[in-house]
Structures are given as structure tokens and as C-alpha cells.
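Late entry, written up from scratch paper. The run itself happened at the end of the previous shift, but nothing got recorded in the book at the time, so transcribing now.
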Amino acid sequence: MSETQFTLPRGMKDIEPEEMIKRIWLADQIRQVLWSYGFQLLEPSPVENLETLEAKSGPGIRDEIYWFKDKAGRNLGLRFDLTVGMTRMIANRFDLPEPIKIGCIGGVWRYDEPQYARYRYHTQWDAEVYGVAEPTADAEIISLGSDILDKVGLKDHEVRVSNRKLAEGFLQSLGVRSQEELERLLRIIDGMGKKGPEQIEGELGRAGLSPDKVKRVMGFADIGGDADKVLPDLEKKLPKNDLISKGLQELSGTIDNVDSLGKRSKVQVDLRIVRGISYYDGTVFEAYDQAGEDVGAVFGGGRFDKLCRIYGKRDMPAT
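Output as recorded:
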């Protein structure tokens, strides 16, 4: 008679004492930097109403998260990030003066395919600035993230910056009109750093783009490098429309403000950066450790100016 083997669910991991010591130290370093920038710490509920998680991402998000019916038949879900819950928390708080600077360190659940260094439950740190439309806030978050990496010993890092309006405006110039088609193509672009060019070209083709348009998207995503070299010629390389003009203005403003914070040497322009979550609508960024790029981005984020109005009556820009 065989004994029952009790194992972990797929994508989950136990934390042994040795790793727990490192995690506690890491969280302490992150908190110190957050406090030094004037952020207040809080934590949103780990369980949300499913409609809260679907409000911006749509019903398709159910395939990417843990959701369930409780004993009363209510649809609930485990948070897949911290931004949604933090935004819900403050979207009706008219008593809070702007700018609102809040941060959190907490666990999130995602029903992704487990892979190297990626589990279905992991801990995130998060910092949000609400109420500032200017690129000073985007630059502050980038500087904060860079300082956190320096603080924990990942000094050889770079932050790759773009603006989602550039990708959206470029795709619109190719004739992409529906939001569903746009989001699908943006998710494919978001995967370019993780997949080979042949695989990406195949996905773009299956998404309905002609071979010529696939080639043009690949060329767009290949634009990147030192900001001083890329930005002066970027306008000439892209189609002309209002969305692209606004994206160029915001990207240049972010780079200029990063420079004023002494972080320009850490920043690269990379038009592949679009971030896969649909609430992003402006400047976006991801940081990579030069000694361990196989791990993927070590932090990422961006602007989400339309999210507050979805969750409450207080309409605030945010990043």
C-alpha cells in the first residue's frame, strides 16, 4: 500500500529559513529607500471582487489570475498586482492632498506558465504617485527604482524607457483600429525580449498583419539605445499622428527629468517596452541587471492616468 505524497501546487514554492533571512533584509532595504523619497506604506486587500480585477483588463484576465466563487456564490479573485488595489483604495479619498505618494511590499498571484525564476505567487514592491501629470513623477519613480537596485547591490543595471503612445500610434498608422486588436499586438511586442524573432513574426502574422506590416513592426521595436543618440532622430523615423507626437513629448520630458535627478547614465530608450497590462497609457519602463538578464526585468512600471476614474470619483493622473 503506497503512502500519499503531499506536494505543492504547480508554480508554488516554499521559503526555507536561509532564503527568508535574505527576503527580510531585502524588504528592509526597499522600505528605507521608499521612506527616503517620502512614500507612505500600506497594503491593499489580497482578495478583490472579480469585477474590480476585470474593470480595466476585461473578462480575459480570468485566464491569467486565480479566481473563484465563495460559499455565498460571489465571484472573487486574488490580486495579480498591487496597483489595482492601491488605486481602488484612494480613488474616492478626497481627504488626501495631492500628490499622493504610497508604496507597498506584498504578494501577488498570477496564473502564468511557471518558468525559470518565475512562480505563480511572488512578492512585489510597488510605489505610486497620484495627482502629478508632469513627467517629473515618472522620473521620480525611475530614480526611486534605480536607487533601490543600488541599495541592494545591483549597481550594474539599466532602465529601458519608452512610451505606450508611440507603439499605439504606430500600430494605428498601420490600420489597427479596434482596442482588442491593439491590445493583442501590444502583448506580442511586450514578449519580444523573451522570444526569438521568428516566433514573434509568426505571432504577428497570425494576429492578422501582412508580411510588410510585420516587417515594419519588427523595425519599430528594434529602435533603441542611448537617449542622446536615439531621441534627436526618433521623430523622423516614426509616422506622424497626434498620439506619436504626444508620446515623443512625454518621453523626452521623462528623460530630461531623469537627467536632473542624476540618473541619465542608467537610462536607455527601447521601443519594445510597452508593458503587458492594459491600464498603462503613457511612459513605461523596465530595469534589467546587466549581470543577470536571463532573470528578466527586475522592476517595471509606467503611467496609468485613466485608472482612478474607473475605480472612483477622483480622477487623478498616476504613475
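Residues 55 and 310 are 7 Å apart (CA to CA).
(Scratch paper discarded after transcription.)
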